[in-house]
Amino acid sequence: MEIIKVIPRGYCQGVVRAIRIARETAEQYSDQPVYMLGMIVHNRFVVDACEKLGIHCLEANGTSRLKLLDQIDSGVVIFTAHGVSDAVVQKAKDKGLTIVDATCPDVEKTHTLIREHLRHGDVLYIGKQNHPEAEGAIGIDPRVHLISKKEDLEHCRNLHHVLITNQTTLSLLDNEELIQECLKQYPDAIVQAEICNATTMRQKAVMNLKNIDLLIVVGDPHSNNSNQLREIGKKAGIPAALLIETAQDLREEQLAGKARIAVTSGSSTPTSLTNTVIKTLETYAATGRFEIWPLTEPIL
Q1: Domains 2-11+197-287 and 106-191 are alike in CATH topology
Q2: In the chain, which residue ranges form alpha helices assigned H by DSSP?
Q3: 176 has catalytic annotation
Q4: Residues 158-186: tens digit of each pLDDT
Q5: d(CA 191, CA 176)
Q6: Residues 118-156: pLDDT tens digits?
Q7: Where are the domains of the chain?
């Protein structure tokens, strides 16, 4: 059995930056309540580590960032790497909260692109329904229309001077398909694909894998970029692709008969979690003993 450690994998620079900001904020404002408006990144182990630093994570399925702010009366609020709308920023200011913005620079770049184009026309934003990054982008202005599937275009008639852009963590393949659907309706639209470099590099690394029997993606099930890596693997022809959170999710029967196993991880996955998976697989490959390696490295 051969274990292929896919490069690149794991934390991107935007995630590293957000975690650094969270840690520094907890230290700087240790005498005040500190809140995270949603999951800092989509990984529950990172969120738990932030909670241990004294940062209270506010998250509820289907609840917007704007609504989550109602739970904060005073103190410090950290905006996550996914970004927020202008309305969220203004509401936080109106409540007198200290704002710490951990928005990923790539997400902020897309927001700037959208704001500049809105002076001239409308925006079709390709993104995932209810994803915080998409929420922040479409919240900029009512003329930013979310396209999660081609049927959404039926509600976007009579737009003018259209810009087509997207969420930064989408599948390269799925994004291109929706861009082409948008262009059928608006052939003269400006296309500005905004999938970030980290997402692109990780997906292409999976696409380029050869003769792999099993792809293991280490990541949170809520992580869009982690889910996309698994789907990219399937579309690339890899016979089996798993998304797991930790080595504890591995089962010996999943590995039986697999000669070449590739391991990658989402850009919000701590290296320590991926390392335990790799060590577990390498031990099994070398000795035939299925033994889950414990987590010995810190999450943050």
Answers
A1: yes
A2: 13-28, 44-52, 65-68, 86-94, 105-117, 132-138, 172-185, 197-207, 224-235, 252-255, 271-287
A3: no
A4: 999 999 999 999 999 999 999 999 999 99
A5: 10
A6: 999 999 999 999 899 999 999 999 999 999 999 999 999
A7: 2-11+197-287, 13-104, 106-191
Of 133, 135, 181, 194, the catalytic one is 133
The pTM for the full model equals: 0.91
Cα 45–chain centre separation: 14
- Average pLDDT on 82-92 reads 94
Q: Does domain 2-11+197-287 have CATH number 3.40.1010.20?
A: yes
* 13-104 topology per CATH: Rossmann fold (3.40.50)
Q: What are phi and psi of 247, to 5 degrees?
A: -60, -25
Q: In this predicted model, what pLDDT tens digit does every residue of 188-233 receive, in sequence order?
A: 999 999 999 999 999 999 999 999 999 999 999 988 889 999 999 9
Contact present, 110 and 168 (Cβ < 8 Å): yes
- For residue 132, say if its preceding peptide bond is cis, omega within 30 degrees of 0: no
CATH topology classification for 106-191: Cobalt-precorrin-4 Transmethylase; domain 1 (3.40.1010)
